[in-house]
Write a structure and sequence with these properties.
The protein has two domains: 109 residues, 3-Layer(aba) Sandwich (Rossmann fold); 187 residues, 3-Layer(aba) Sandwich (Rossmann fold). It has twelve helices and twelve strands. The radius of gyration is 22 Å and the shape is globular. Helix 5 packs across helix 7. Strand 9, helix 9 and strand 10 form a beta-alpha-beta unit. Helix content is 32%, strand content 15%. Strands 8-7-6-9-10-11-12 form a seven-stranded parallel β-sheet, with helices on both faces. The chain has a five-stranded parallel β-sheet with strand order 2-1-3-4-5. It is of the alpha/beta class. The relative contact order is 0.14.
Length: 315
């Protein structure tokens, strides 16, 4: 018998959360790409993952003692929850840990794209000064634009609130009825109205199968020719080949894409090389504060190992 529960950790954890867990469990840090993972899984009572460890039936079969899978983050599409529950394995996560970070990043991308900036580190001539002010004058500012929020969950609601504070006209579309106190002044509309009216369309839906490639040629064809499309949700919700066609055909449109169907993408990625496609490497939740909050999924992991009910069980 193991003297303490064994936790296999496959991705990064904050030092404070790792130390807290290490006081209670025997923690084995083994990257998900390491062949030795199979050996450690045979002993594991808990599995701690982040974004890239895929927990399917084949992995679960190699972990006969597993009692809990803890996802330090929000999305659960890489974890087969049904297979876990068949085995009586609990799945826990941190559903609101990175919401503010992602909402901030949406506007960081928008401001980077719409408000070009030049930072000076030396004196320049009067001519260069005047040239910079002339060439970097923004074509659009956020105030007065229509912000369309597709998905009014935790992150979408924060985005709507920020947009309203910046005097944008905010519309949203969601499958659920959103209480007035969570709308932050945003107006509910049909999908068709959202697509037709949005100057900026930001996506905040989950990656359920019904949402795969939801941003299709048909949807893109219903957008304004100079729309700014922002995806900080999941890569699978956008048909990247269709988006590449749309951006090539509409040079005034912008695609601000932080998440990708394959990460990292390779040289065949359809959006590479397009001047109006701004690509970032899945940075929206990348703040120390958000990472710290996500790392404290260890508390729920420990609750399960102690036979208690977790606070944030996977839906």
């Amino acid at each position: 018998m193991e003297p303490r529960p064994v936790v296999v950790q496959t991705e990064d954890l904050s030092p404070a959360a790792a130390a807290w867990l290490g006081e209670r469990c025997n923690v084995i840090v083994c990257p998900y790409t390491d062949p030795a993972l199979n050996v450690h899984l045979a002993r594991a009572h808990a599995l701690l993952v982040r974004t890239y460890t895929r927990v399917g039936r084949d992995l679960l079969a190699r972990a006969p003692n597993l009692r809990v899978v803890a996802r330090a983050g929000v999305g659960l599409e890489h974890i087969d929850i049904a297979a876990c529950r068949e085995r009586g394995i609990e799945v826990v996560h941190t559903p609101d840990a990175n919401s503010s970070a992602v909402a901030e990043y949406v506007f960081a991308m928008l401001l980077d794209a719409l408000r070009p900036r030049l930072f000076l580190d030396a004196a320049i001539t009067t001519e260069r000064w005047a040239k910079a002010r002339r060439e970097l004058a923004a074509v659009r500012q956020l105030e007065g634009l229509t912000l369309g929020v597709w998905g009014m969950g935790r992150i979408g609601a924060r985005v709507a609130r920020i947009g309203a504070a910046m005097n944008m006209r905010v519309l949203y579309h969601d499958l659920l009825e959103i209480p007035h106190d969570r709308r932050h002044g945003a107006t509910p509309v049909s999908r068709e109205h959202l697509l037709a009216q949005s100057d900026v369309l930001t996506l905040h839906v989950d990656p359920r199968p019904a949402n795969h490639r939801m941003i299709s040629r048909e949807v893109l064809g219903a957008l304004k020719r100079d729309v700014v499309l922002v995806n900080c949700a999941r890569g699978v919700i956008v048909d990247t080949a269709a988006l590449a066609e749309f951006l090539r055909a509409n040079s005034r449109a912008l695609g601000l894409i932080d998440v990708h169907d394959s990460e990292p993408f390779d040289a065949s990625y359809p959006l590479l090389g397009l001047p109006n496609a701004h690509l970032s490497p899945h940075l929206a939740a990348a703040t120390h504060q958000a990472h710290e909050a996500m790392s404290w999924v260890v508390r729920d992991l420990w609750r399960v190992l102690e036979g208690q009910a977790p606070e944030h069980r996977a839906p």
